[in-house]
Amino acid sequence: QSTWGFDLADMELVPDLLLPAIFTFVPRPQFVLLRYVNRRFKQTCYEHEDLWPEFEMRATNLLLTSGSAADTVLAVRSLAEKPFFRACSFHCENMMDLVANVVPSTTRTLKIASSPTFTDNGLTTIFQRCNQIQRVELIDCRLLTIKSLAMLVCSQGMRIRAMVLRRCHNIASSALTSLISQMRCLEVFAVEDLKGDDDSLIKNVVLSSGPSLSVLECSVHDNDALQSIAANCCSLTNLTIHIRSNRRLTSENLQAVLLTNSAIETLHLDGGGSTVTDETLISIGLACPMLLHFEVSFSHSVSVDGFIELAHKCLLLRSIVFKGCPCVGSGHVGYFRMLCPSVSIRRDID
Description:
Elements: H1 19-23, H2 28-31, H3 39-47, E1 56-57, H4 59-64, H5 69-80, E2 87-91, H6 96-100, E3 109-113, H7 120-129, E4 135-139, H8 146-156, E5 162-166, H9 173-180, E6 188-192, H10 199-209, E7 215-220, H11 223-232, E8 238-243, H12 251-260, E9 266-277, H13 278-287, E10 293-301, H14 304-313, E11 319-323, H15 330-339, E12 344-347
Parallel strand pairs: 1-2, 2-3, 3-4, 4-5, 5-6, 6-7, 7-8, 8-9, 9-10, 10-11, 11-12
Helix pairs in contact: 7-8, 8-9, 9-10, 10-11, 11-12, 12-13, 13-14, 14-15
């Protein structure tokens, strides 16, 4: 009898064409063990690469609650035998170095999140094992420095398509700037709260990879950075700008960015203060006819009238999310929903 309460022999009655669809409902930690059930299951796993688009391993749960460290390492090692295995994601707080030694060598997407004890040694081990990495996401890895990233960029820089770094406080923005010139094929670049964050990093990124970028998240301190984005980027579809200066960024420079990237579908303006106004929203509406999702955070000058104008000008707009906007209250939200019923609007309270 199986865990689900029926005899596995009954599965022999299921046509081969239906097995892949059934396997998509199996939880990922158990999915890696399916090939051990019988030859038929093993053959199905090997023949259908789309069943393995991404594997997220939450190491905290696996190591501390549902099994031993040895079981976890065995499960990861079994993945290394998959020639089509491409993605590996870890969310853990300890024992990361142990898991780093068995990351599949064919990994192309690597994501490490919430790992405050993970060091350069563990990341260097992964980069030494994996020579096909195209996407790197490091989130809340506070002990990592530029040392391990430099090793990756120097050996595989031209292969990297995406670089996402969030709250890695020991990675200096200036040090990363010196490596950017070796990554000329970036399609996704997102940075948040790096050490010594300044505009030189984003200027170098758009200068080296501007035409290929489709997703960009960065901090902006002055108008020069906006002008650099406008001059070098032409195919952005997802743009997030963290405004990090009390100086007023001119609406003309922001509009220039949007006009050269009129295919933008998702736009987030964070930390606007008095920079983002209702006039800014109107200019966004005129420049971005393809806009689907808009988010604004901590803007003191945005009102519901600006949201209404934006919704009327962007006919494809589906959602507006706002946070820290004192001029927009609950009554204003109801008024907006009455005038623009096709657009979802909500206040982000996180």
